[in-house]
Design goal:
Blueprint (H helix, E strand, L loop, with lengths): L9 H30 L2 E2 L5 E2 L16 H4 L9 E8 L10 E5 L4 H12 L7 E4 L11 H8 L5 E6 L5
Parallel strand pairs: 3-6
Antiparallel strand pairs: 1-2, 3-4, 5-6
């Protein structure tokens, strides 16, 4: 009787067993590292999760911004974001619809900018992020971009009447 399994030599079978064991150990180590990272999170008195990791994500749940990005020094050049303005309804269509804006600017700056371009000193102008909601005028454009940006741009729909 031979010691090979299905016609294989014992050394090949042993190598496969060792490789399988090593893969299991690596996946277990990766899983325990993830568990250890989650274990560093604590809960505050009001029930919010406080994460002690230095690169923890903050803000909206789907947000891509990290603490490291937010606490960067102000001596660096201001970050620019691409804003795509899309006309809705009877609003005039812009010849150039994509603009670069400072990430530190407030949403009110985008409103004033669009009023200036459309030559609407007064009257109604409605702006919606991703055709879904109207952000507060004091919301940072960078935060909106980080959380709701699509394909490296923040899409803002504008209308002269209420659209959604």
């Amino acid at each position: 009787m031979t010691s090979s399994v299905e016609g294989r030599s014992p050394s090949v079978t042993a190598e496969k067993a060792i490789n399988a064991t090593n893969r299991q150990k690596e996946s277990a180590a990766a899983t325990s590292a993830d568990t250890d990272a989650d274990a560093s999170a604590t809960t505050s008195k009001d029930g919010h999760v406080i994460n002690d990791k230095p690169n923890a994500k903050i803000g909206y749940p789907g947000c891509q911004r990290s603490k490291e990005t937010k606490t960067s020094t102000t001596s660096q050049k201001s970050e620019k974001i691409k804003v795509h303005l899309v006309a809705v309804g009877s609003a005039p269509i812009l010849k150039k619809s994509k603009f670069l804006m400072n990430a530190d600017d407030r949403f009110a700056v985008a409103i004033a900018f669009l009023r200036k371009i459309l030559k609407l000193p007064s009257g109604s102008l409605f702006l919606y992020v991703n055709a879904a909601f109207v952000p507060s005028p004091d919301e940072r454009m960078g935060d909106l971009f980080d959380c709701f940006g699509i394909r490296e741009e923040l899409v803002i729909h504008y209308s002269l009447q209420e659209a959604w």
